[in-house]
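Reviewers asked in the last cycle whether our approach scales beyond single polypeptides. To address this, we selected a multi-component target totalling 681 residues and predicted its structure end to end. The input consisted of the following lines:
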Amino acid sequence: MAETDRSENERVARLRATVVRELPNVDFVLGYARGFDPLHATPITVRNEQDAERLIFDATCVENLATSLYGLRGKRMGLVVKGCDSRSVVQLLQEKLVDRENLVIFGLPCDGVLDLAKVRVRTDIAEVRGAEFTGEEVRLLLPDGEKVLPRRDVLADKCLRCRYPNPVVYNHMIGAERTPQGEEDAYADLESFEKLSAQERFDFWKRQMSRCIRCYACRNACPLCVCKHVCLADSRDPHWLSAEANLQEKWLFQVMHALHLAGRCTECGECQRSCPMGIPILLLKRKMNRELKEIFNYEAGVDPEAVPPLHTFQMEEDKIKDRGQLW
Amino acid sequence: MVARFLADEAVAAQAAAWAQDYRLLAPVREGQAVVYRPWAPDMHPFLGRPPSSSAKQALLPQTEDLLTYTYRKDHTDLTRTEVFLAEPLPPEPTLVLGCRPCDARGRKLLDRVFLERGVKDPLYAAKRANTFFITLACERMENTCFCHWTGGGPTSEEGSDVMLFAVSGGFVARALTKTGEKLAAALPEATPSALQELEAKLASPVEPGPVPDLRAAPERFLALFDDLDFWTDQSARCLSCGVCTYLCPTCSCFNITDENFGLKGKRLRTWDTCMSALYTLEGSGHNPRVSRAHRLRNRVGHKFCYHPREFPAPDGARQPEVSCTGCGRCIKSCPVAVDIRRIVLDILEKGENK
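The resulting structure, written as structure tokens, was:
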């Protein structure tokens, strides 16, 4: 067994033991268990030692469990988080949407998670039988033999630019802290997209959004989209959106989602990952975040004490020069 | 009926030929998804893997007009308003190319709801009578596939008009209905070697995994109905989104809304999802299915308990009729990997001792 495997196994054992120790203090712990195949993890509620034995942590643990926090507020619960997930917790704390006292956070420094879409492009995983993860590789056991992929090629984009592999808020840090590998986000994807003409960009979104089935997985997977079913996408009175499945309705929701997340979105990417139609909606949120970075030099979900820029105002903003028009 | 042959390189041209007589829906690759699109001259039907969305949309579209209406004010007496209604046009004959057996079998379960419950849904009936399926038999079962639990299989013919079987260089086409024969008539006969290859393939079918005995599922589901801890744990992962229900070939729930634009408007039928809190939200503000646990319970219960109780299988049947064809889309596309098979197995196991 490789060195990394051994230390990772020890880490999961530590996670299980730590969770079991905390069980008397919480109603349950939300963590990851193996899903329906070796490339899928699924969230579980851990209530006893037997449940804790099912806990895992590896590159398949893609889900951001902080998404459940707001819906379960009021409960005393434990939560397993990666670095990126912990930023969602920070944002929820800043907005006073969850109580820190009710949370026991198990923070796991993370080496990056898989983007299954990237794996699928490289090999057919519909019948995958086994998966192993080392520091450099993803080894897949497929019906017709083993397939080895370089780990970097199949990590989620957010992991390649991750500067917070270590949870920024936690009760228990489980595992050695990782050295951040990502560089300052240059928004290269956005840059190249914005080189297209307005018409080309509109055509792109028209094509992409025409697949949308209005399932609102993007909204419900978002840890900060806390309106859920009182969302204005569902409201009949006032009647913002019609029930029609046309571009206008679908697009209006996405624009709204992006605007409501300006300065709040930590780019966990759950909206895009959850889309069954593979629509690249994270791009819209990245656009907002880049603006926020430029105007307010602000990054969401890093400092629990910070006030998000759109939650406050200053009489004189450094980079907003429209005051003369107002009075 | 002789077996026909559809060569790989003839698929696009043949689709174009069929599209002259039918509104043709065929799967195409778009980004990470494979979706059904109406035929277009530059279309390249993609038959390589099961489509992300189900063929249900041919019979029950995401939205459809039930009627359009116009109000007209009486200018001599402004308290009077007349309403003029217009019915939608009759549906075009539709051909679905490249669905899988689990999709085609979904027709039967949709019929149960829309045609066999005493009231016939005229819109559905019109579409149903005019929609045909050219189904591609599966050569393997993916990790999410469980058609064999529900009485189907990778080569099930139920609900299809033509079956395609992949062989080298193309597909052997077998017509199963009168319309199927008409559709396949334009194709050349299959060569003996293609037929031989097919026979050899069919002689060694995929070996599906074990099948649980689902006959006890309805009773055990009801035994667990009030065990909210069980359902809370099952639904701890659920996001309450509509992926599972909208991609399902058998989910049939819909909403009806009037979309007003001044003095004109239309009445729409739209897919609805029991995973949404709004689904059961009552006018009073009360919601009988207040949590994700309640809602997930309903989805599983409908498919594996209420449906088999409403449509009991004949005596001596090995499995009940469930409202599921085992296509596995709800598992594969679920953002948090909720596995309905696991839930059913847990029901069978934990419901026994209740």
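Residues 184-317 of chain A form one domain. We regard this as preliminary and will revisit it once experimental data from Aim 1 are available.
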